[in-house]
Amino acid sequence: MRFRLTPRETSFYDMFAASADNIVTGSKLLMELLGADSSARSELAERMRAAEHAGDDATHAIFHQLNSSFITPFDREDIYSLASSLDDIMDFMEEAVDLVVLYQIDELPKGVEQQIEVLARAAELTAEAMPNLRTMTNLTEYWIEVNRLENQADQIHRKLLAHLFNGKYDAIEVLKLKQIVDVLEEAADAFEHVANTVETIAVKES
């Protein structure tokens, strides 16, 4: 039987939920990127940068709470891993938007919208899952689905690479676009890392 957690300990759950909600904000900004013209992208990048900074603040708050708490709701290394992986997701999404602006990309290749749709769905699932860490219930379907989405993201990524190397683009454009789709793939991987960490926590707590 699990001991009742103190009010101080429960703040971790609120902070994880806040971090995941911020990732949903980032995924919505990524979706906006698809329909934005070049003149609107700089403002969009600024909003994404603000969201990424909010994510950093959320991560630092978790680390501060971890360092100042004698008792934690689950293993310290798992708290650190979960917070770090959530932070990685925001970092990768912000990097992708920033690269589109810095490289002055006129048109994203077909398939990027599928990458972003996968990330948006993974963000929603992650935000829905974080509050369930309190009770360690209804989490199995979450990590199974995120792992399925990551496999889907892998397939989309491979198709995008094949498209980029089919001779339609010049060499410099290929390098620019490849870096963007690679960063979006890293975001998908980071979602899987979060799900795997949640699974590890749930197994330990069962």
**Structural class category:** mainly alpha
Mean pLDDT over the residues: 93
The helical percent reads: over 70%
Residues in β-strands, percent: under 5%
Protein name: DUF47 family protein
Pfam families: PhoU_div (PF01865)
Family: Belongs to the UPF0111 family.
Characterization of this structure:
Belongs to the UPF0111 family. This is DUF47 family protein. Pfam families: PhoU_div (PF01865). It is a single chain. The chain is built from six helices and no strands. It is mainly alpha-helical. It is globular and about 55 Å long. Helix content is about 80%, strand content about 0%.
List the main descriptive attributes of the protein structure presented here.
single chain; mainly alpha; 80% helix; globular; disordered N terminus; UPF0111_domain; Put_Phosphate_transp_reg; DUF47 family protein; PhoU-like_sf
List the helices and strands and how they pair.
Layout: H1 7-35, H2 38-68, H3 76-102, H4 112-129, H5 140-164, H6 171-205
Helix pairs in contact: 1-2, 1-3, 1-4, 2-3, 3-6, 4-5, 4-6, 5-6
Protein name: DUF47 family protein
Organism: Streptomyces lonegramiae
Family: Belongs to the UPF0111 family.
What's the short story on this structure?
The protein has 206 residues and is mainly α.
